[in-house]
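Async update (no meeting this week)

Hi team, since we skipped the sync, here's where things stand on the single-chain job. The sequence we agreed to prioritize is pasted below, unchanged from the tracker. I ran it this morning and attached the output directly underneath so nobody has to dig for it. Comments welcome in thread, and please keep replies under the output.
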Amino acid sequence: MNAVVESGMAECLLPGGEALVRTASGTLLVPNAVPGDAVDVRLEARRRGARRGEIQRLTAPSPQRVAEPGCDAADACGGCALQYVLPTYQASAKNDWVGQAFAPFLSTRTTFTGITAADVMPGTRRRVRWRRGEDAAGPYWGFQARASHAVVRHGDCIVATPGIRRLHGLLADLPLPGVAAIQVTELADGMHLVLEGDIQACELDLPATVDADHVNGLPVQAWQRGKDGCVPLNRPVHTLHDRLPAGEVWIDLIVGPDDFIQASSAGNAAMIRQVQAWSAGARHVADLFAGFGNLSLPLAATGASVVGAEVQGASVAAANRSARQLDLDARYVQADLFARFDPAPFAGMDMLILDPPRKGAKRVCQMLPRLLPRKIMLISCDIAAGARDAAAIAGHGYRLAALRALDMFPYAGHVEAMSLWEL
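Output:
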């Protein structure tokens, strides 16, 4: 049976990076299409409740389309949905996504700061995860394919930092028996290299593999991830740090192999500076979903008193250790913020910072009548969850004073939203 092919026009980009294409039979979602493209689309099966298709032929390209993407795996890789979209249009689309998600709460008094084309920079992604693949040429390490468990063999990744690209070149064809995935995080003074899987029989000669224990001048700390956390594979163990702005100075914070960091160092610095600007004058700050203190320890370094909570014990320990080493007025406790927790230590603050994972901060938002902060800063890595949290915050009488879009993942269909709420 022949596949059904329809002609259509791409109308807009949706969060995630797929384009809405209108054909005679209706609308469908198509990857790698750009608004303004005229395309012939091969219809595919429904997925996640939506009609989907794949470009069979580009009949007339959009003026917003990049003729040749810089990545040799752009058609298949699941990491970068916007490789065919000009940077100016990427910035515009992501600003629209944030504006539309928070539209019910915008007023004439809300200031909005958007992404510009200059923010869409290649070579900035400092956190990646490669999976094991194998083909006729042998085993390799690549990214997961779009909408598939397949692994894409790729060349030089244009979005990754130079150090990570060099590391991939050194590891790309190594078999590493038993290893199923490799996670890499590049920090200011080194890289965490985490091997996942049953690697008891894996003989990893790290110095020979990664250029005498260093890549681009940075030490590489290798780990094996187990059910109880990460175990070091090379010694002495390197303690690695992220370098963050704190007013007019920069501070170094300890970051472990399991700690969450933002994917772009420049984007993270811009976020931290925005946190400091919106927190001007705040003496007492609560930081929930605090991680290793990424947002609040720089505030403590500028004079604020900070209390924070985070579910990951290793991150709590790292945050407290950094606070002690820097002699800051900051303390962090371990708490599951999706379950019942004691709000008393975090109540009555000048500023409440919420930086939850993708599912949002529903439980904390329900407890706002007991927390009663003067201001709330919400960082949303999923704008749909951010809109739900925003509705809850607005329901407790807060108004949206400022909104900012940030691009932590240039060329990907992802955008970060920062919002400031006041009574």
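Quick observations from my side:
The CA atoms of residues 67 and 211 lie 37 Å apart.
Residues 87-101 form the longest helix (15 residues).
Reply here if anything looks off.
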